């Protein structure tokens, strides 16, 4: 049995009051609120940022390859545009993860934004290295 007020687990089946908060177990409130806390592990966030960084680097390489194929053969423009779209999406995902890391580490958000949009490729590399240092 679980208390509706505090969420405490009650081992006795026929108890009328909660051992933890003392509230009555016979009256069920309209809404039971459980206190849940979101625990964010910095290692998991760094791992996710690393995966997105590797994805972004691989799409940069794929974009160059398909651009060269497009220039040499005068075809395959749709593949080049698809990989270019993947590059932009992976970069945006990486920037959102770097933004989250900057919030967790209590660093300047303005500096992160100016660095990444002032010099996009070099700024993203710099931000990634700076934010994932342990």
Structure description:
The protein is mainly α and 134 residues long. Helix content is 61%, strand content 0%. The chain has four helices and no strands. The chain has helices spanning 42-73, 77-104, 109-118, 120-131. Helix 3 (109-118) packs antiparallel against helix 4. The mean pLDDT is 82.
Summarize the topology.
Elements: H1 42-73, H2 77-104, H3 109-118, H4 120-131
Shape: elongated
Radius of gyration: 25 Å
The main sheet comes to: none
Total DSSP E strands: 0
Poorly predicted runs: none
Kindly list the characteristics that best describe this protein.
single chain; about 130 residues
Can you give me a brief rundown of this structure?
With 134 residues, this protein is mainly α. The protein is built from 4 helices and no strands.
